[in-house]
Amino acid sequence: MSIAREVLQDKEVIQFIQENKEYLTEESIERSAANLYEFVVEKNKARKGEGQLLDGYYPKLVLNHKKIEVSYAPKITVGKGVKKGTKVRITVKVAATKNYKAYSKSIIYKVK
Fold it and tell me: What is the pTM of this model?
């Protein structure tokens, strides 16, 4: 099976393309082939626990000006015993640097 066919048969790739079909053309999908390949490879590495491009982060497909790109989000783990549907508050704190003030951001995450 060719790499392009394997990538375009990935369930998450298919779902992303379907959800964004009004913004994508065949040409824009072809121009995004390298990013789609990166997504599938890194996703598979993450699932197998192999060396990822960004350890502890998982790839996510995003649409940027009619082009598919890969973004990386940190892995969120919730302790055992937390039931599906439970809402958990996650706060990220970023330390100040020479050019930026410290800040924190909270989100509510619904356990899947």
Answer: 0.67
The alpha-helical segments, DSSP class H, found in 1-112 are 3-8, 11-19, 26-31, 33-48
For residue 49, the one-letter residue type is G
Rounded to 5°, the CA angle 112-68-5 comes to 90
φ, ψ of residue 100 in degrees (nearest 5):
-135, 145
Domain range annotation of the chain: 3-74, 77-112
Q: Which two tokens stand for residue 69?
A: 């790109």
**If 0-12 CB within 10 Å is exposed, 13-18 middle and 19+ buried, where does residue 110 land?**
exposed
pLDDT digits (tens, 9 = 90+) for 60-105: 999 998 899 999 887 777 777 788 888 888 787 777 777 778 878 8
Query: Cα–Cα distance between 53 and 58 in angstroms, integer?
Result: 9
